Hints:
- The structure holds two protein chains of two kinds.
- By secondary structure, chain A is α/β, with parallel strands linked by helices.
- In chain A, strand 3 and strand 4 form a beta hairpin.
- Chain A: This is Amino acid ABC transporter substrate-binding protein.
- Chain A: Keywords: Signal.
Amino acid sequence: MKTLALGLMAVIALTGVARAQDKVVRIGTEAAYAPFEFKDDKGELKGYEIQLGNALCAAAKLKCEWVNQDFDSLIPALNAHKIDAILSQMSITDDRKKAVDFTNQVTVAPARFVAKQGSGITDDPGSLKGKTIAVQSGTTHEKYVTEKLAGIATAKVYQTQDEAFLDVENGRADATLADATIEYDWLEKTGKAKGFDYAGKPLLDPAIFGDGTGIAVRKGDAALAEAFNKALVTVGTDGTFKKINDAYFPFNIVGSGAHAAK
Amino acid sequence: MTDLLAGLQEAWVRQAPLFLSGLWITLQLLVVSTAIGLVLAVPVALARVSPRRVLSVPATAYAYLFRGTPLLVQIFIIYYGLPQFDAVRGSVLWPLLRDPMPCALLAFSLNMSAYTGEVIRGGILAVPAGEREAAMAVGMPRGLMLRRIILPRALRIALPALSNEVVLQLKATSLASTVTLIDLTGVGRRLAAKTYTTEGLFVAGAIYIALTFLVARGFRLLESRFAAFQRP
């Protein structure tokens, strides 16, 4: 009996060690945000940030696993230890910094309106009077419309940006406010053919839109943040990041965190 | 634990008006879709048990279509799918279908009618053959027999199962939050998204439990009023 108990304890101890060694980093993302993260016809995760995340994990020698879920539940999931990091075009804002820690800047993320051509909508709030703006739940864009445009425009809130685009197309919303990057992808694929385009200049309000996007980790998980920060510089300096960027956009959104420290 | 309780209190006290507006949307969805669903369910059930194939085949197809596909898919097709056709956007129905509320009500009502249609069909089949024969023996016409004997009896038999359907319908209304309606679930989710915690969802859950209790209680009253003879 004693040997059995000892044996069991040894097994438990051994598996415990094995666990600690190949600990999997679960990265949460919301795969309805093409071209950053989306599912292809076969249901596999694809996109700019999926490639980037895999490159970062390789550079940091981490074993990573993707977890796909709604954007607005990413931070609660992180703090509930369901995932260990978030790479999902999440803007680094003061609000979010109260709940999570961020790595250095991964990409820049200018926000911009998209509306039907000739709608007269611009970034000027005066042009948005009485309009309905489609935004995604839990995003900085939702915050901008509900706070900065309170009493001027109405926010119509969607679970995914894909749905927001659909309703702009269907004419239920006058415009959408989102990252100019994913709007570019949508405009190229469907929007332009249906007469949509950017409306007005990109919005600059660091208090709301923060300072680009980063990878979120749990508060105090400095080891993981540091590992990602180092990996960012590695993929930034060896050309991997630029190569991924150019495969998706004709412009450069590589963030400051990927530049070599001076 | 005390953190969670304090958070819950905070979520409830500060956001009470939000939750009340969410509750109002949920109640509208539940009451209207259940009412329309029940009214449609009777002809669906009658057509299902009809010996005439022109009636029973389409009714069976209808029941299988709505019971065989997820409600989420139905609501997405009605809300996001239909307007993809220019004909729908140009039709007289567009001002109605443009809003999420009629779209959600349409999906929930049709769904409800398909499910409760089956429940009522079960009730009709469970009406004792002797009562039917007695009605026929006194020369009652079919329509009158249906109205006076079969349907009242079938509905009474189906009452407990109907109460279950209404409770399920209450929870099904939470899918309205996927088409931009800010119902109870929508409020809970929005708050959770804003605070990065789950307190808003806890409060929403507590309200759902209270509503379920009220629905169950209401049906118990109906049962003791109309179906007391069925008690052992």
